[in-house]
Write a structure and sequence with these properties.
The complex is a heterodimer of chains A (about 80) and B (about 550). Chain A is built from no helices and 10 strands. Chain A has about 80 residues and is mostly beta strands. Chain B contains 21 helices and 16 strands. A 4-stranded antiparallel sheet of chain B has the order 9-10-11-12. In chain B, a hairpin with a 2-residue loop joins strand 7 (about 400) and strand 8 (about 405). Classes of the chains: A mainly beta (about 80), B alpha+beta (about 550).
């Protein structure tokens, strides 16, 4: 599966606030949208409390909702 | 080397936080003579010739002017022709029959053809004589028309033209006989910010860093830089940047979307929906809605966005750079590191006199300051009934508690905002602010409560949806802020537990759950789980 590097260790970025869920290690995105990173790191966000992760390989993804217009399943947009 | 700070020096931290926060949030008119001197100093330190300086009325006008001058408009429309049309055709063809395709093609085709026709225009820069002015005007009008919505267009269209005219007209006017393309292009294409940044910021950083110990560096950064960063960069600049992009991106998405939606709505719904209904529904929606939306968004939105991002990235942020400039100011003023910081003279002066600037090789566009800036008690951009941040041309940002909003969401009184509008708002943070505005009790009173668990409630809003007997939304409390989020879940979900499981990202959902499974985490809408997990716990071990 191809992967691309995500600048700034960003796991997700809010459209309406510019806020970012981010880590201090390198983040790669897989073709299915899952983002991968490795190491003991903190997950930071301007609004949410920090989460400390132990040292291992991690996957991250965004929760789902039903799009209010299309009735299709999609990632939550914030 | 300075290895520690005295108490007297530390006592001056608040002075610098206050000074640079005020600079970053200043709403006075730009001090144009000082800003122009600042730009000349910046170029001098980058060992570049003084540029022509063109004033713009807002960062959006900076960006659109640059795009106009570089003629981004034509490439955007070419892309519309090449990739979006093909995506639309492929999706429609794969999804519906010939009769429907003909109808859809007729509708979508018109809008694509219009865009293509509008893009067939001679290169401004390769044209000469009297026609140049007309072509420049047309190019600007077309770009502005295609790039921003009507309200923004009214506000900034004239400003963009004035800026472009100031940028190029003098060059064009004097070159009636010869092509001016190459020389003008050469003069505007090379962004110099990287060289300014490399020659100034990096060397200052290295010089200051060599002069102070780790604890001094960290202490000043935490006490001055980070405080101003939170007030200016995180709270204001980020939303301005997003709004510059969104003003272009959203309206391009909307305008393309409108034409696609109109075609799908009228043609597919009329011709397919009634006759084929459920058998075609999924494939049509999957292919047309999801893939067209995705391709339109990705192709058109991102290409325009890319040009905006390029402009944004080529910018220096003037007063919005207050955090890191304030950080270095402390070293200069308190620790007397004059020599080490001398190259910042231009950037310091620009920050104290103007807003964003786009420095190119022979030209620099610089924006007026915002003249309105309103915040809540937490320092976030906010105004409950008016624009939160505005520039002299009227363009700006509507925001509630730091969340960028459509103007109508802010300007409509709470008791006039329909529940249906809130339910159908696509962005969860915007939805949260709308809920806060109208009050959660009013929302709940319109729903049927299906299930309760801890701080979660599963609510049925079917009465707002035609032809639906059950439309569940999960109401949840943000554990970090206390804000209430309402997100629609699948009609398969009859309990809160089912809804929580359904919401998980697809890759996470495929992992079986057990109380003995591995720990996973959730921060807002982002779930984080071990890469090799075979079984996970039903709920995150930490949620913030």
């Amino acid at each position: 599966m191809k992967k691309k590097q995500i600048e700034g260790g960003i796991l997700a970025e809010g459209e309406a606030t510019g806020h970012k869920h981010r880590v201090s290690v390198a983040v790669m995105e897989r073709e299915d949208g899952v983002r991968e990173f490795e190491g003991a790191t903190e997950v930071l966000h301007e609004e949410h409390k920090t989460i400390s992760l132990p040292n291992r390989k991690w996957n991250s993804g965004i929760v789902r909702e039903i799009d209010p217009y299309s009735d299709m399943v999609r990632q939550v947009r914030d | 080397m300075i290895k520690s700070l005295s108490n007297a020096q530390r006592a001056r931290f608040p002075e610098f936080v206050d000074k640079w926060t005020k600079i970053g949030l200043c709403t006075d008119p730009a001090d144009r003579p000082s800003a122009e001197l600042a730009i000349k100093l910046m170029y001098k330190y980058a060992k570049l010739e003084e540029p022509r300086i063109v004033w713009c009325s807002s960062p959006l006008v900076n960006v659109l002017t640059r795009a106009s001058v570089l003629k981004v408009g034509a490439s955007v429309r070419t892309l519309v022709e090449d990739s979006v049309r093909d995506s639309v055709w492929a999706s429609v063809e794969a999804s519906v029959g010939d009769s429907v395709r003909d109808s859809v093609e007729a509708s979508v085709g018109d809008s694509v053809r219009d865009s293509v026709e509008a893009s067939v225009e001679a290169s401004v820069w390769d044209s000469v004589g009297a026609s140049v002015r007309t072509l420049v005007e047309d190019s600007v009008r077309t770009l502005v028309r295609d790039s921003v919505g009507a309200s923004v267009r009214t506000l900034v269209g004239d400003s963009v033209w004035a800026s472009v005219r100031a940028s190029v007209w003098a060059s064009v006017r004097d070159s009636v006989e010869d092509s001016v393309g190459a020389s003008v292009r050469d003069s505007v294409e090379a962004s110099v910010w990287d060289s300014v940044e490399a020659s100034v910021e990096d060397s200052v950083w290295a010089s200051v860093r060599d002069s102070v110990g780790d604890s001094v560096w960290a202490s000043v950064k935490a006490s001055v830089g980070d405080s101003v960063w939170a007030s200016v960069w995180a709270s204001v600049r980020t939303l301005v940047e997003d709004s510059v992009g969104a003003s272009v991106r959203d309206s391009v998405e909307d305008s393309v979307w409108d034409s696609v939606e109109a075609s799908v709505g009228d043609s597919v719904r009329t011709l397919v929906w009634d006759s084929v209904k459920a058998s075609v529904r999924d494939s049509v929606w999957d292919s047309v809605w999801a893939s067209v939306w995705a391709s339109v968004r990705d192709s058109v939105g991102d290409s325009v966005w890319a040009s905006v991002r390029a402009s944004v990235r080529a910018s220096c942020y003037g007063q919005h750079d207050a955090s890191w400039l304030g950080f270095y100011d402390f070293f200069k003023q308190v620790l007397n590191l004059d020599k080490q910081t001398s190259k910042l003279e231009g950037l310091w002066l620009l920050a104290q006199s103007a807003n964003w600037a786009i420095p190119l090789k022979h030209i620099c566009w610089v924006s007026e300051r915002h003249n309105i800036l309103r915040r809540d008690n937490d320092g976030r951009l906010h105004c409950a009934d008016d624009i939160a941040l505005a520039y002299p041309d009227g363009w700006g940002v509507y925001a509630l508690h730091g969340v960028r909003m459509k103007p109508e969401y802010v300007l409509t009184p709470a008791d006039k905002l329909d529940t249906e509008i809130i339910l159908k708002e696509g962005n969860t943070e915007v939805r949260r602010e709308l809920i806060r505005k109208v009050g959660i009790e009013r929302i709940i009173s319109k729903a049927k409560v299906v299930d309760n668990w801890n701080n979660y409630r599963l609510l049925d809003f079917a009465k707002f949806y035609d032809d639906e007997s059950y439309v569940p939304f999960l109401l949840m409390v943000n554990p970090s802020t206390g804000g209430q989020h309402l997100e629609r879940v699948s009609a398969e979900c009859k309990t809160v537990e089912q809804a929580l499981n359904w919401r998980k990202p697809e890759a996470l959902q495929r992992i079986p759950v057990s109380d003995n499974g591995e720990d996973w985490y959730q921060q807002g809408d982002v779930c984080i789980w071990p890469e090799k997990a075979i079984i996970i716990k039903p709920l995150p071990i930490v949620i913030t």
